């Protein structure tokens, strides 16, 4: 607590797709073990280091255990503000890593082996809260940022834009967002699937199910320790210790993409430009935060709604895990290198939880 803590950054390399294999794409990314990955292609020969690297054969369970996600859940229960976000090129496996197969629904659940970091974290959170015997109140909110508008994915009716506010005590926050209490795994998974189905997606040349928005699911964890025997005059509540308030936020960033590669036009092109602008703002903030504290200039969090909502996770008092997702295909080389450089810079960012 209060010590400088580096962002933990892990890398996941998805398998080559059937289309890439049929097309004859070469595999240009190779895991070297011990958190190192090597990129070898014409005019490119570089090695990058991360906290962990998961290659194409890694299971969803291995990613959960090896990324430090279990520890993040425990820290959130202890009252810390924790964030995990997945980023990378469109079609690189971000949503699969966080949620598992796209085809799942409440009537057609995914196979347990394929469940992503979110569902595994929910299970871990509920197990931990039961084993600690603590009185935890759990609630969830789910937002998307689409074309620079913040929209609630849980409120009934068509998603409408919500205002983003600033206060000295809370920092940036979304006004009037719905927060739904839950007590069981079924209830929180149901909220996740309902919200995800309302999220903006489209098909284009690189991805049949491309997320067109950034999505943030936040689990709010409130705990209160109360003494069993109230002192005279204290009433039924007993003497309440200060309540712990932790949070666990999952951020599924829309994929970076080149409009030329995706064949996007019209509305899709507008969406792509909006996505790329906010990712550029995020990259700029990360570059400035990666400098030593004494050499940092003003961090432009206000440049986008995304950076405003992630300000606390990146430069403040939070604990953050980043999952960089890449394709090993030679055709995606420039975007893969861009993601690797982005992730390497993020490793130098420090927060003070």
Automatic annotation (TrEMBL):
Keywords of the record, alphabetical order, are: ATP-binding, Cytoplasm, Cytoskeleton, Microtubule, Motor protein, Nucleotide-binding
Would you kindly state one Gene Ontology biological process term found in this protein's UniProt entry?
mitotic spindle organization
ATP-binding as a keyword of this entry, yes or no, is yes
Quote the subcellular location field of this record: Cytoplasm, Cytoskeleton
**Presence of keyword Cytoplasm:** yes
UniProt main location, coarse: cytoplasm
Residues of the Kinesin motor domain = 6-349
- GO CC: one term? microtubule
Pfam name, any one = Kinesin
Recall the GO molecular function terms of this protein's record: ATP binding; microtubule binding; microtubule motor activity
Binding-site residues for ATP, renumbered to this chain = 88-95
Give the highest taxon in the source lineage. Eukaryota
Similarity comment = Belongs to the TRAFAC class myosin-kinesin ATPase superfamily. Kinesin family.
What is the protein named? Kinesin-like protein
Q: Which organism is it from?
A: Dryoscopus gambensis
Q: Which gene encodes it?
A: Kif12
């Amino acid at each position: 607590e209060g010590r400088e803590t580096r962002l933990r950054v892990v890398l996941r390399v998805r398998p080559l797709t059937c289309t890439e294999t049929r097309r004859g794409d070469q595999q240009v990314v190779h895991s070297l073990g011990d958190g190192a990955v090597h990129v070898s292609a014409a005019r490119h020969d570089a090695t990058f280091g991360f906290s962990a690297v998961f290659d194409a054969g890694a299971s969803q369970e291995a990613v959960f255990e090896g990324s430090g996600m279990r520890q993040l859940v425990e820290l959130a229960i202890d009252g810390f503000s924790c964030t995990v976000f997945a980023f990378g090129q469109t079609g690189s496996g971000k949503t699969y890593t966080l949620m598992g197969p796209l085809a799942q629904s409440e009537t057609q659940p995914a196979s347990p082996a394929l469940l992503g970091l979110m569902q595994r974290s929910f299970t871990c959170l509920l197990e931990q809260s039961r084993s600690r015997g603590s009185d935890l109140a759990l609630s969830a909110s789910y937002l998307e940022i689409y074309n620079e508008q913040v929209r609630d994915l849980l409120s009934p009716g068509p998603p409408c834009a919500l205002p983003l506010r600033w206060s000295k005590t809370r920092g940036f926050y979304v006004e009037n967002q719905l927060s739904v209490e839950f007590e069981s795994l079924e209830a929180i998974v149901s909220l996740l699937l309902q919200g995800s189905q309302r999220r903006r997606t489209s098909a284009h040349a690189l991805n049949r199910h491309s997320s067109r928005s950034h999505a943030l699911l936040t689990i709010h964890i409130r705990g209160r320790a109360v003494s069993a025997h109230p002192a005279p005059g204290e009433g039924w509540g007993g003497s309440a210790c200060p309540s712990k308030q932790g949070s666990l936020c999952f951020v599924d960033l829309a994929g970076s993409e080149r409009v030329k590669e995706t064949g996007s036009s019209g509305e899709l092109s507008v969406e792509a430009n909006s996505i790329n602008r906010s990712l550029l703002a995020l990259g700029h903030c990360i570059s400035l935060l990666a400098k030593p504290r004494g050499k940092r200039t003003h961090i432009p969090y206000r440049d986008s709604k995304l950076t405003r909502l992630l300000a606390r996770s990146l430069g403040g008092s939070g604990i953050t895990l980043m999952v960089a997702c890449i394709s090993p295909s030679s055709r995606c080389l420039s975007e893969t290198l861009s993601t690797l450089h982005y992730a390497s810079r993020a490793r130098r960012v420090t927060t003070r939880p």
